[in-house]
Specification:
Distance between the termini of chain B: 122 Å
CATH superfamily of the largest domain in chain A: YVTN repeat-like/Quinoprotein amine dehydrogenase
Helix content of chain B: 55-70%
Structural class of chain A: mainly beta
CATH topology of the largest domain in chain A: Methylamine Dehydrogenase, Chain H
Number of helices of chain A: 6
Radius of gyration of chain B: 35 Å
Largest interface: A-B, 48 and 24 residues
Structural class of chain B: mainly alpha
Number of domains of chain A: 4
CATH architecture of the largest domain in chain A: 7 Propeller
Number of strands of chain B: 2
Radius of gyration of chain A: 34 Å
CATH class of the largest domain in chain A: Mainly Beta
Oligomer: heterodimer
Strand order of the largest sheet of chain A: 55-56-57-59-63
């Protein structure tokens, strides 16, 4: 037998060996959507990254700031980068030089270039101003393609020519006027900068011509009449690198389209139909392409297109032909093959290709699988003219649809669909798969009847249920086989069904673009349904303040910040009721309250007051809200006979200079298995378990201090507070809370108080345990009281006239990597130990740090005593290395996680995890290992085989033994 | 068959000998009887019997003293094994394993069974005259059994199976419930 210490050491060493995700669990317990975000029309294109090969990749800079390349054949991500580290809201530029192996992008203040094949960075330059446009100079004096970047630097227009090799500045053109820089364009000889001159609401276009070699201004003129342009949006197109670049703009009421060839001072006007809703211009981007372009006009009655030709000699623009009006929405895209320019039109059921020269259709592909069933918004296409005789074309078009999917149609065949809309998630929740509602109702009915009637009813129900017995019996062999062979049946008649382990749930995901997704997380995260709930304008974001799941009714309600709400069936996504968002933001958050009609979400206004109190709610609770000035307040309700009025029962104002960085409360589902911690000597330290607490981290930027407050949410009293020095306010600060402890993570640099010549710098995580008393076997001043009140002071001298304060033990660790999106795992009964889950933004993974490692009672500066070892305490070590085995995403590259949610399963050992942000990832974690279910490694086949072999042995040997015994009887005893 | 029926009248000689064996004739001292032959044992047993028969029957008092003495031996029996048991228990360690569990089980079972069977244990020593003395012996016997039981309890305690610490009662302690509730609306 092992001595107790050794066995404990083994126990401690064991987790590190078996914590990792097993290889056979990959793809079984976890699922991952590698996403880019919805591609933007201007920053998406096909490009050939290797000049010598014909294979091209699909590049995009998405609306959330992810730059990436997708293999157009398989739809798999080749490489991708989250450019700013966080999700951005639209904007950015992406260009590729013809025949170059790199692409260049710009977002915010930086211009960068990337290797087209492997996504390695070529250069990254940060500037002072904001990038307004980016263009590639196709022809330069030194046979190199350079980058032109237009900046708005504090009101002045700056154009820089950057070397395509290393991003070094070749020349810089500055114009210190108040004009708004808009776009840059170039033909072979000159560079044109288009800017808006005038005052707000009434601009006209100014064209500045700049020398390509020196960056000196050559000429400058104003196009059109004054006040012709209302805003930047009216200038729709500034033609790219064609031989005759154009600039096109409309007036505010979309009556006339004005086009001018850059380099000329005259403009041409074209009348638009009266009911025009939107105009788009599609033009080829190659120098050698024919100077043709297409104007796509959307009216209330449908949409059609006009193709225009530019005469290179006279610079005159003339309409060549029309493409017919279609009622259903369609998307146009341009593709060029040497000088030839092709326009493709994608509708719901068909792909049509025309040449820019004539209106004759050169290719037509009806969609083989019927219809897309979603409207195409914009598309990019790649047309290849097949060698040989005849007009044989091959086309592939990547289409962004109104369901936020990115679909590739290859010669009329649906090659792949990427659910890019799932990126940019703002809120998510787990929902149980709705059970048969009838059963729930019957059970409820039985509960209300008198026992005898209920019994008779139940017996009748069970007799009635017997009709399902044959079906059940016949399903047993197949279920047995599934169980032995490890195949899964997660669906019942095609519908998702609950399982006995509780792994089959739904995840409801709401995204910033107004889409809702229902994922079957028991079935590899398959998308059950996707609904476009609201059309959120670009640059805006659907701000979801609360998701409430009505388990018994099978419905879910999502409440947004602009008085919008939507109720839908959890299983099918079918919208029951929806209320569109208003312009004004009115709701800052919601509180989930229980009423007689079930739980409802209580909207809370922007200055922290409860907006409308439902009549069915009898408020007995304090609602904690955040006031407009940043502090917190507690609101109670007073019933003055006729109506309820709100009374602020307490306010918590932060000291001068501090502002809220992060707030956490205990999770709604936070069961406590044991109310105390048993120490090595079998004494007990009682946990301070107050459900009415919240932890608030406040940062003081001027002093660089982080103060963490633990507040009682009933009385507003500060239960404990601690201050950390040298904290960087620019780095993420997050708190998480569970049971009787909370963690706060921050980036800090501070000298040690014990030895001032030593300092600590790095990402730190501080954990605080709360106990009822400093000594063991003591329940604090409240002693054996069954209840406690936060409002009534204690009648004990030691409490000093306040309520019982927790005894605090705290410890700080330095982490080897920054973390964000802190969350604590949840299990059904809280018996399993907990894990702190966090996203590692630099390692693109989610780590599960066991609570045991973060233990604040780890002995500092000495080895643990045998009693402490028995308790599982290790010697304190200031650095917690992120163990690759504890990364629950293992080798997956999970990008841009913003939030992690957890939910308990039916089995105690397991907690379900769902992470969203850019990517969507879900898995199951077992912080105390899978002690209650058999792993995949358990060989059921050999178990069954052994049992069968034993049975066969008994059957075979039985007669032999019997015969032998009978023979023995007949033999005379010697 | 008729021949057979008449034969018993003239039984062969060996049958006669078997039925009435000839008297034992002592042979010379040079030929010892084979071991197990009845003649070799009979003389010694006869001697013993004669010895016992020669001894004077003890009086009632003597018998009582003897019985009480015997009873004391029985009463002190359990405590004699205790040091050995104690050492074994100490050696077996405090972890839960089959050996120590069996040992603890026996350490409890034996004293309890012993106490329950006190009367049976002293039945044969009890006479009408020594009842008072036997009662003392019984008491001593019970005390000894309790001593053995104490050893078992010591072992159980050492194994941590006795609910003597606060942590053993933790599961029955209730979480303190708050009187007020708050909802987070953050």
């Amino acid at each position: 037998m092992l001595p107790p210490q050794l066995s404990t050491f083994l126990l401690l060493a064991l987790p590190s060996a078996v914590r990792a995700v097993f290889q056979d669990e990959v793809g079984h317990i976890d699922y991952h959507y590698e996403l880019l975000g919805v591609p933007q029309p201007e920053t998406t294109f096909f490009h050939r990254p290797r000049r010598e090969e014909r294979a091209s990749l699909l590049y995009t800079l998405s609306d959330i700031g992810v730059l990436g390349a997708v293999n157009p054949t398989s739809g798999a991500v080749v490489w991708r980068h989250l450019l700013n580290g966080t999700l951005t809201n639209g904007g950015g530029f992406l260009r590729a030089g013809e025949g170059e192996n790199w692409v260049t992008g710009a977002l915010g203040k930086s211009v960068h270039a990337w290797d087209g094949v492997n996504g390695r960075n070529k250069f990254w330059v940060d500037f002072d101003g904001e990038v307004k446009d980016l263009e590639i100079m196709e022809m330069t004096e030194n046979n190199r393609k350079d980058v032109l970047a237009l900046f708005d630097e504090h009101g002045s227009t700056v154009l820089r020519r950057l070397s395509g090799d290393d991003g070094a500045e070749v020349w810089k053109y500055t114009e210190a006027s108040k004009d708004i820089p808009l776009q840059v364009s170039t033909n072979v000889e000159k560079v044109f900068v288009i800017s808006l001159r005038g005052s707000s609401g009434s601009y006209n276009l100014k064209v500045t011509v700049i020398d390509t070699l020196t960056g000196k201004e050559l000429d400058q003129w104003v196009l059109g009449a004054k006040g012709e342009v209302r805003s930047e949006k009216d200038v729709m197109f500034v033609g790219a690198n064609s031989a005759a670049p154009i600039v096109a703009w409309t007036d505010d009421s979309l009556q006339k389209l004005r086009i001018s060839v850059l380099g000329t001072r005259n403009r041409q006007e074209f009348a638009l139909p009266e009911d025009t809703l939107a105009v788009e211009i599609h033009a080829p981007h190659l120098v050698q392409s024919l100077p043709h372009f297409l104007v796509h006009i959307k009216t209330a009655a449908g949409n059609f297109a006009q193709v225009y030709h530019t005469d290179l000699k006279t610079n005159a623009i003339s309409k060549a032909y029309d493409l017919p009006n279609l009622e259903e929405s369609s998307a146009f895209s341009t593709s060029s093959d040497n000088a030839n320019v092709y326009f493709s039109r994608i509708t719901d059921g068909e792909l049509v290709l025309v040449s820019s020269v004539s209106s004759a259709i050169v290719g037509q592909w009806p969609l083989k699988d019927g219809k897309l069933n979603q409207a195409a918004l914009h598309a990019v296409s790649d047309v290849v003219k097949k060698s040989g005789s005849g007009q044989n074309f091959a086309i592939r078009a990547a289409v962004v649809t109104d369901k936020d999917n990115w679909v590739l149609v290859r010669n009329g065949e649906l090659a792949w669909t990427r659910p890019e809309g799932m990126s940019g998630g703002v809120a998510a929740a787990f929902a149980e798969i709705p059970e048969n509602e009838d059963l729930a109702k019957t059970l409820e009915q039985e509960a209300h009847e008198n026992p005898l009637e209920a019994y008779i009813h139940r017996v009748n129900r069970h007799i009635h249920d017997l009709q399902y017995l044959p079906a059940y019996l016949s399903s047993i062999p197949s279920r047995l086989m599934d169980s032995i062979l490890g195949t899964e049946t997660s669906t019942k008649d095609g519908k998702p069904a609950r399982d006995s382990f509780g792994f089959h749930k739904l995840a409801i995901l709401a995204t910033r673009r107004g889409m809702l997704y229902g994922l079957d997380i028991g079935n590899h995260g398959r998308i059950l349904w996707a609904d476009r709930v609201f059309h959120i304008a670009g640059g805006d974001k659907w701000n979801v303040t609360g998701i409430q799941i009505n388990e018994s009714g099978g419905e879910t309600t999502v409440v947004g910040s602009n008085k919008d709400s939507v109720t839908f069936k959890t299983l099918t996504g079918e919208i029951v009721e929806s209320k569109a968002p208003e312009i004004q933001v009115s709701t800052q958050s919601t509180a989930l309250v229980s009423t007689e009609q079930g739980q409802i979400l209580l909207p809370i206004g922007s200055n922290g007051e409860v907006l409308d109190v439902p009549s069915s709610w009898t408020p007995g609770q304090t609602v904690v809200t955040q006031g407009s000035e940043g502090g917190l307040k507690g609101i109670t309700f007073v019933d003055d006979g006729s109506k309820l009025s709100q009374v602020v029962s307490w306010t918590f104002a932060l000291p001068e200079g501090q502002k809220v960085a992060s707030i956490a409360t205990r999770p709604v589902h936070d069961p406590v298995a044991s109310i105390g911690r048993v120490l090595g000597d079998r004494s007990v330290r009682y946990k301070y378990l107050n459900p009415n607490t919240l932890v608030l981290a406040a940062i003081d930027e001027s002093k660089s201090t982080l103060t963490v407050y633990l507040l009682d949410t009933v009385s507003g009293q500060i239960l404990t507070s601690s201050t950390y020095e040298g904290v960087d306010a620019g780095k993420p600060i997050e708190v998480a809370m569970s049971e009787n402890w909370f963690v706060v993570s921050f980036f800090g640099q501070n000298t040690l108080r014990s030895s001032p010549d030593q300092s600590i710098k790095g990402y730190q995580i501080a954990i605080t345990d709360l106990y009822e008393s400093d000594v063991a076997n003591d329940r604090g001043p409240l002693e054996d009281a069954e209840n406690f009140s936060s409002l009534e002071p204690l009648d004990v001298p030691s409490a000093g006239g306040t309520s019982a304060l927790p005894a605090v033990i705290s410890q700080t660790y330095v982490l080897s990597s920054p973390i964000k999106a802190l969350q604590v795992s949840q299990t059904r009964q809280g018996i399993s130990s907990r894990q702190v889950l966090a996203y590692l933004p630099e390692m693109h993974g989610i780590v599960g740090i066991p609570r045991m490692f973060l233990e604040p009672r780890r002995p500092v500066g000495r080895d643990p005593t045998p009693a402490e070892v028995e308790e599982g305490l290790m010697k304190y070590h200031p650095v917690i290395e992120i163990d690759p085995k504890s990364i629950v995403t293992h080798e997956r590259d999970v990008l841009g996680v913003e939030k992690i949610i957890t939910s308990p399963a039916v089995v105690e050992s397991t907690s379900l995890v769902f992470a969203f942000g850019v990517d969507v990832f879900g898995t199951r974690v077992a912080p105390s290992f899978l002690f209650d279910i058999l792993g995949k490694g358990f060989n059921k086949l050999s178990l069954v085989g052994t049992v069968m072999a034993c049975f066969a042995g008994v059957v075979a040997l039985g007669p032999m033994v019997r015969r032998k015994q009978i023979d023995a009887r007949w033999k005379a005893p010697m | 068959m008729s021949q057979l029926a008449t034969s018993p009248k003239t039984a062969p000689r060996w049958v006669e000998n078997l039925k009435n064996p000839p008297a034992y004739k002592a042979k010379g001292p040079s030929l010892p009887d084979p071991p197990g032959f009845p003649s070799s044992q009979t003389p010694s047993s006869k001697k013993k019997d004669s010895k016992v028969a020669q001894r004077k029957a003890p009086t009632t008092e003597e018998m009582d003293t003897l019985k009480v003495k015997k009873a004391w031996e029985v009463a002190l029996g359990p405590v004699k094994g205790l040091p050995m048991t104690g050492i074994m228990m100490y050696m077996s360690g405090n972890s839960l394993q089959i050996f120590s569990i069996m040992m603890v089980f026996m350490a409890f079972k034996n004293p309890i069974m012993g106490i329950l069977a006190t009367n049976q244990a002293f039945e044969r020593f009890e006479t009408d005259t020594n009842k008072g003395q036997i009662l003392q012996v019984k008491l001593a016997y019970v005390v000894m059994q309790l001593l053995a039981l104490g050893l078992g309890i010591w072992k159980v305690n050492a194994m941590g199976l006795l609910p003597t610490t606060r942590s053993d009662w933790l599961a029955w302690e209730a979480q303190r419930e708050p009187l007020e509730h708050a909802i987070s609306g953050l």
